[in-house]
Amino acid sequence: MPLIWTTIGSLGHAVAALLFASLAILTSRKAGGQLKQQLLVIALALTALWSLRHALGGALIGETLSDGVGETMRNAAWLAVVWVHLRAAPAGRASRIGRPLVIGALVLLLAVEIAFDLLVGGGARVSAALVQLERVSWLLRCVFALGGLVLLHGLSSRREKPTEAGGDLWVAAALAFMWAYDFNHYMLAWATENAVVATGPMRGFVVALLAIPLVVGLRTGGERRLALSRPVALRLVSAGIIAIYLVSVALLVTMTRDVTAPFGRLVQLSLLFALAVAVLALVPSAALRSWLRVEITKHFFAHRYDYRAVWLGFAQTVGRTGEGQGPLGERLTRAISEVVQARGALLFLRGPEGALIRAHDWQWPADADPIETLPAALADRLEPTGWILDIATDWASHGELLPAWMEGDARAWVLAPLIHEGRLAGAILLAAPTVTRRIDWEDLDVLRVVCGEAAALISEARSREALAEAQRFEEFNRRFAFILHDLKNLVSQMSLLASNAERHAHNPDFRADMVLTLKDTVARMTDLLGRLDRPGRTRASGLIELRVGALLRALQPRWASGLGPVELSGDIPGAVHADQENLERALGHLVKNGLEASSPGAPVQVELATEQGKAVIRVRDQGCGMSAEFIRDELFRPFSSTKSTGFGLGVHEVRLLVSAMGGALDVDSTPGSGTTFTVRLPLIKAGPTSTPDGSSPPDDHMPMRRTA
Length: 708
Known about the structure:
By secondary structure, the protein is α+β, with helices and mostly antiparallel strands. The chain folds into 4 domains: 3-226, Rhopdopsin 7-helix transmembrane proteins; 234-300; 307-466, 2-Layer Sandwich (Beta-Lactamase), CATH 3.30.450.40; 544-682, Heat Shock Protein 90. The chain contains 23 helices and 13 strands. It has helices spanning 3-28, 35-56, 58-61, 69-87, 93-120, 131-156, 168-191, 203-209, 211-220, 230-255, 263-282, 286-300, 307-319, 328-339, 376-385, 391-398, 404-408, 441-504, 508-531, 548-562, 580-597, 628-635, 650-660; strands at residues 345-350, 356-362, 373-374, 389-390, 412-420, 423-431, 544-546, 566-570, 576-578, 604-611, 614-620, 664-669, 675-682.
């Protein structure tokens, strides 16, 4: 054996001897009269002596791989330890018969091994006649190692619950590793006729490492569980892959070493180049890393998710509120996606009309035809059931509720509802992960937890927004109270002026003062009107059958003379149920806003039409337009206005007025190209409205008959 291997072997066995001797001394102090502990001390001591013999007598070992009687006695002591542990183990009929037979066979093997050790003489130079006996001894040690592993399987599985085995599992793990290494060592020695010398000297370091699980099992009673985290497991597997790559390179070089030059060098370089290309192609691959993570989780861990790490990561992502982190909805979208390794996600929030409106996205590619809403029928189904839909699997049973684009979109993977206290706050559409898989019970459980937390956070944020709006309304009411106080003073002043006019109207001086007072009052009232635009009724107190075309033809001259140029086109032949005053106010708001947004002299176009049983009124201006973000987040919010003198209540009030009449308000705007507001009101399906005398009114008249 080369000197380098002898030195390595001596060093490893010296470390093992020191560790096992220390462990034997510590264990003997609390052994007492228990047979199990006493046998354990003996086994530890014999292992220390075996390692010490190798550490001090390495130079005498020569090329003999067997350590003779010392190793046989070590194995006998550990076999006794296993036997004592198995005595108390519950066993069936087969185990009660099989265990004694296996132990008896192993004891017989130990006796034969001692005989062979005495004949061969561990470490001494042997004659050619004894070489075959030494090879037979290696096979016997392989058989003993296999028998020991069979017994250890019974020791590790003798309890239904691992926690009941205490420190036995740690002892079994250490012995299993030792005997597995011995089996490979002696089998390799027998197969190669002792040509491989590296495995023998490394036995010392292997045995030294076994002291770690023994210490854990003996000192903690098995209460401390040895568990690898997922990142550590991933790194260990990656290290194993790197080791396989290095071994492959070494084998390729060895296999091509004898190829005749100059082809040998060419073959080596070609193979190395192919391996390098494969590594460069696979290592940066996100798909490979994702696949490796899935396989490690599947085969190394009982559960797919490390729930502690999942929850901490979710909370950390949602809790980031610094610059560039985005609003709460965007952070929630990212956090839920990262939990299930989705490549992207769309977050939909419940709108006032029940539909799910797209609010935020994370890593979802921009579409030429963007996804804006999910139908209200789907939201109504998700709210009471809380179903998490696998798009591919559940399409057959829920396809009538899901939009058609979702079936053909390869990105659509899972649709999960966000439910808080029985109410649907929204839903999240997750894109398929890099390694596509079917969702299972673990995915469903973790999605329910994180989506429930997301729904709670969204509901809390909405409550804060509602509270802030209520506070702004309170401030608005307080300011309105001050204005009412000023109006009361003006009314008192005008009442006094009216009462004095009856007595002093003939006095020229009084008339001059009255004119000045009236001018001042008008100026002050005009100032009040400029400070506050009177908010009108937002509830329809009475609906009438109203002909919208006739109404707008009557309003158009008034708008043109009082506000600015207004062009009216089209007609609506039918009638609608509407509150005339509220409809006039709503359309007046839209026309006024359009004129204010347009350049001076630019007309506002009002178009009338009927579409799908609805009266459609489009108010189109030629202003600067609005962005999609402003329309989504700011336009309909109270007190949100781009005008320095506006309260931000106009469009908000319009939507409330139209909604109270059973209609809907849509907005279509492009920055730089103007804005179109569309009011849709249901047409009355009955026949033409009758006047009180029973005749049908002409289209130029507006019927005022009230309905229930």
